[in-house]
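Q: what does this look like with protoporphyrin IX containing FE bound?
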Amino acid sequence: MKSSTGLSSANRNLVYSWLLYAISAAGIAGTMAFMVAMTRTPGVRLLPSARAFHVILVGHVTFALTIWLLAFISTVWMYIGVQTGLPMSRKAGWVGLAISLAGAAIISIPILLFQGEDVMTDYVPLLDTPLFFVGFVTFLGGIGITAANYLVAVVRRRAGTSPGPTLSITEYGMACAAVAALTALVALAVAALRLGIGANGRVPAEYYQAMFWGMGHSFQYVSVSTMVVVWFAVVGVFLGEPKINERFAKVLFSLFALFPLATPLPYFLYDAITVPTRKAWGISLDSGLSLPVMLLGPMLIVWAWRARSTRNVAWLKSMPWSEPRVMTFAFSVALFAFGLSIHPAARQGTLQTPAHYHSVVVGGVTLAFMGLAYHLLAKVDRQLIWRKLAAIQPYFFALGIMLLVAGLLGAGTLGAPRKTYDAAVTGAAWLQPMVIMGVGAGIAALGGAAFVAIMLKSLLHRTPTPAVAAKRPALVGVGGD
Ligand code: HEM
């Protein structure tokens, strides 16, 4: 039975469950982020040892970069798939959710119990113990099923075995994200094949850096392409049908699927353990990532400009500053662009690297996802609760991330090393920027906590009966298309 949300209750429950899972992961990631940041803040030094710092940093990156992002991206595959009537398998939808949840639960055990040697690899800092890998691979298995479920549905639609309209830009964009996600899993499988299982006398940091290099690069394409899809979806909520060359936009989105196809190749061309040292590949993949964004981004501006003539949209003159879906979008674009501009510095291996990461992945991707999360509440038949807090939440989070990034960048420029326990509190040279980093982290953590609290309260709070709802004043723009 279809409700006012346009989704059947069965589909709504599936999207709801993925969303609740993703938001919970964000809460865990944010808590550990705060602990890591407060440990590197001069005068605070929250965690008592380098071991505790590294284990919590592993937990932070695992729950942030891997679980939060991929669980939310899976929510988007499910939502766009069921909302546009793609022939997705609901069974595969639940199986994917259950398996990825099981993976996340398993991976939490060594983190909570401080098991295994910590290895500070890029993309996947890890604990070198079997349970960590069983959990990690299980989690990826669930995500792989979800991406394949979406892609098969798209192929069936295009092959005409399941008739329907041509794919919209957002549907097409998420298909490209699904191709990149499955390519990431292929890159991991090829790496395992070429490297073998277990460091076996090789330096663990080099072995795991090589193992996750290809997968890590491909997953960047997954999260960035989904961020751009969310930009288009949110703009579409306020401006209606796209007023741009959709065919050209789809060609650009295809680059998000095409470029990552190169990631398994170096494992066949070189000694697999040396792949991360092949700088040309890393640089081309990173540059390839920003190309479609730098062309699709301006297309949104063209769309808004063209929309201006047809719609008496006074709001274009007076931006809806208290509309969280719009402000998360605006900050996301600005912080992603800034993050791209500091990318070159990121190659120095100092705190400039996390400065770049947090500007693009937290400022860009995560903020965009926050905006869509607010939008999905009505789609899963939930009202936004604590609306006033939701109106200021994007400002808090964005301001916090800006200060965090400025602090990390400043300290990194002065040579502060990344992922290092006490360097920040003893290196006088970068003391001030690290204080700014800490203040930023505190504000960002507040903004992040507000987002998680609003979403969990709204998701877990049963929507009031129509009679009760009728008594409540409606908030213009939030929840309804
Ligand atoms: C409240 C928000 C957040 C704060 C305050 C925060 C803070 C930090 C800090 C202080 C570090 C350690 C830097 C170092 O010692 O090298 C770190 C590392 C990292 N964080 Fe976050 N983080 C936040 C959110 C996120 C999110 C949402 C993501 C991803 C979606 C993320 C991804 C990462 C990654 C990938 C690293 C490792 C960086 C590297 O390889 O050098 N963070 N974070």
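The pocket of protoporphyrin IX containing FE is lined by residues 29-30, 33, 36-37, 40, 57, 60-61, 64-65, 68-69, 122, 351, 353-354, 357-358, 361-362, 366, 404, 418-419, 441, 444-445, 448 (CB under 6 Å). The mean pLDDT is 91.
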